[in-house]
Amino acid sequence: MRFALCSKKGFTLLELAVVVFIIAMLAALVFPAFFGADNRVKAEARKTASLLRYLNDNAISTKSVYPLKFNLADRVLSWQGPDGEKAERLKALTSVTLTSKGEIKEGEVTVFFGPLGIQENLAVYLRDDRIGMTVSLSPVSGRVKLTEGEKQ
């Protein structure tokens, strides 16, 4: 009598699961490198917008003056708020535009948030190789606006 032996011409479920797991792990490591820069610029823009709202609202509510200093050479924001002095490094910070001074691309600029809020239009530009964001603060409404793309 002759018995046919089973042919082993396929992959087992375990082997396929291991390959899919390895591909998923590699994709998880590679994809953030492609999309991370856009997210970083957007995150820095949201953080800047939040800081501008925070300083403007606190200055109005406490009737105090809070300075915000932009160091464009080191790409650092430093401010004195109700909870002390703080600083934040923004890798994508490129320039600041004020109504009174125009666009400033180098050096240091200090903006004051007083008891009536900020007194002039302020725009902060953040940019890297792929994306640019503008964070603008209106003195009339006190609203912060985020815009993606070119300078507004």
From TrEMBL:
<dbReference type="Pfam" id="PF07963">
    <property type="entry name" value="N_methyl"/>
</dbReference>
<feature type="transmembrane region" description="Helical">
    <location>
        <begin position="12"/>
        <end position="35"/>
    </location>
</feature>
<keyword id="KW-0472">Membrane</keyword>
<keyword id="KW-0812">Transmembrane</keyword>
<dbReference type="InterPro" id="IPR012902">
    <property type="entry name" value="N_methyl_site"/>
</dbReference>
<dbReference type="InterPro" id="IPR045584">
    <property type="entry name" value="Pilin-like"/>
</dbReference>
<protein>
    <recommendedName>
        <fullName>General secretion pathway protein H</fullName>
    </recommendedName>
</protein>
<keyword id="KW-1133">Transmembrane helix</keyword>
